[in-house]
Amino acid sequence: MQLNSAPQQSESFLLTTEPSQEDAANRGKEAFEVSPTKPSLLSSHGEGKHDRFLGQRGNPLAFQKSEELQKILFAHRHERHLVILQDFPDPDALSCAWTYQLIVQQYDIKCEIIYAGTLSHQENIALVKLTGLPAQRWTSQVLKSKDLSSYQGCILIDNQGTTSQLMSAVQQAKIPVIAVIDHHTLQAEHKSEFVDIRPNVRATSTIFTQYLQSGLLSLDSSVSQHVKCATALMHGLRSDTNRLMQAQEEDFMAAAYLSRFYDAQLLNAILQANRSKRVMDVIERSLKNRIVQNNFSIAGVGYLRYEDRDAIPQAADFLVTEENVHTAVVYGIVHDENELEVVIGSLRTAKLTLDPDEFIKEAFGKDSTGRFFGGGRTGAGGFEIPMGFLSGSNENSTYAKMKWEVYDAQIKQKLLKLVNPQDDPIKSD
Ligand SMILES: [Mn+2]
After folding, report:
1. Which range of residues forms the domain containing residue 66?
2. Any idea which of 19-23, 39-43, 76-80 has the lowest mean pLDDT?
3. Residues 345, 10: contact at Cβ < 8 Å?
4. What is the spatial distance between Cα 216 and Cα 210, in angstroms, rounded to a whole number?
5. Max intra-chain CA distance, the chain
6. Contact status, residue 102 vs residue 229, Cβ threshold 8 Å
7. What is the pLDDT of residue 426?
8. Is the distance from CB of 380 to CB of 313 less than 8 angstroms?
9. Alpha-carbon distances, residue 267 vs 91, 240, 256, 413 (angstroms)
10. Is there a single domain that holds both residue 224 and residue 309?
11. Assigned domain for 43 exists
12. Do residues 265 and 289 both lie within one domain?
């Protein structure tokens, strides 16, 4: 891993928001006629037959899930749906949501891709700008202006609803969950018509590429949107597999398929996005503050702005490259322009036997409502700890410093308990 490429991004958990307007009326007006024969995967054309064979041979589950999803989409044709992403969407989430949108257009389903937080990582901003990826930011103000009763369903992609603050509004509006498609560890039982959760797959982009290969949508390299979407998927796949270094056979198969359609130059342009000075400063602080024990590198970086939140996983990506370090945890207090503050942390590990999901859950436990403060997937994890009553009021720097020190000490204490199990007072020898 190099400093100039930090592909893995944040795992996010609850945060509140700031304004930005998206005009719901600007959604595409095109309506596709869906013939009753359309839903059969056998009706797909072009390279479909060959790809179907690949999908089937390579992965019967993927083929079966594609078929199942197709039936559900057919049953929901002509509806309006919301695709809900985690608050700080990463390339895997963004590209899959876009793929989903292109798939369901064939069923005259209009879906809006929404997230509540912000695009923080420079590569994500570049991805969205350079490909024209149609994701909308729904802050609490935007949410208030929306008539949720006009949506007949919602879809969770690359998350299971635990990392989006939009979920409570969607649940209140009684919008049913139609599909959950994810590769994170199962977070809860889902009351959803369609569930495709495969924690053994490294990226949701792999799952979506398999849907494409099964014939849910025939990519056409003469269609610019398809090329851009394939490029986004390639970026998502690379990003969640540490540039394919953690990829497994099916991820490579998916990348091989995408290689027929993606635009290498466009991908390069996305990856060239530079870090801001403030992100560099956070990385510098993480280097200065890190403590290394038992191959774990732990660094608190103090306060940082909401829009620089992704500096935390990028710092963790960097710290884990140190010799004799297999796992890095970086955390800080993220604040927005209001009073909101939250402790956010990221874990990166190169140790195959360390399960980030288990580690984070064990280290920080649950809040009073029984919800875990964080979780993870292969190689990466994250946590968010709301600060409640202690939030804000940092005009007094002594107070701000004191508050940071308390959180810093508490987080270190919880992490070190797991890092140094020999500190257990009960010793057998
Ligand atoms: Mn992912």
Report:
1. 60-272
2. 19-23
3. no
4. 9
5. 74
6. yes
7. 64
8. yes
9. 12, 15, 15, 41
10. no
11. no
12. no
Q: How far apart are CA 125 and CA 220, in angstroms?
A: 26
Q: Which residues surround ligand 1, an ion (CB under 5 A)?
A: 92, 158, 204, 240
Between the CA of 366 and the centroid of ligand 1 the distance, in Å, is 23
Name residues whose C-beta falls within 8 Å of residue 391's C-beta, 6 or more positions apart in sequence.
339, 340, 341, 342
CA of 10 to the centre of ligand 1 (A): 10
Where do we find the tokens 């990582």? 121
CA of 159 to the centre of ligand 1 (A): 8
Q: Which CATH number fits the domain that encloses residue 412?
A: 3.10.310
How confident is the model over 249-265, as pLDDT tens digits?
Answer: 999 999 999 999 999 99
Q: Encoding tokens for residue 416?
A: 């070190």
Same domain, 144 and 261: yes
Sheet containing strand 374-377, edge to edge, reads 291-293, 296-305, 327-335, 341-349, 380-386, 374-377
Q: What is the pLDDT of residues 112-165, one digit of tens each?
A: 999 998 898 999 999 999 999 999 999 888 999 999 999 999 999 999 998 898
285 and 148 together in one domain: no
Could you give the number of structural domains in the chain?
2
Is the domain of 76 the same as that of 163? yes
- Confirm whether 245 is domain-assigned: yes
Cα of 422 vs centre of ligand 1, distance in Å, is 34
Give residue-wise pLDDT tens across range 265-286: 999 999 998 998 999 999 999 9
pLDDT, one tens digit per residue, over 370-394 is 889 998 888 899 999 999 889 888 8
Residue 183 CA to ligand 1 centre (angstroms):
6
Query: Residue 174 Cα, ligand 1 centroid: separation in angstroms?
Result: 26
Distance 390 CA to ligand 1 centre (A): 32
Enter the pTM of the model: 0.77
Helical ranges in 28-134 per DSSP H = 48-58, 60-75, 91-105, 122-131
- Beta-carbon contacts of 176 under 8 Å, excluding residues fewer than 6 positions away, are 152, 153, 154, 191, 192, 193
Both 247 and 301 in one domain: the answer is no
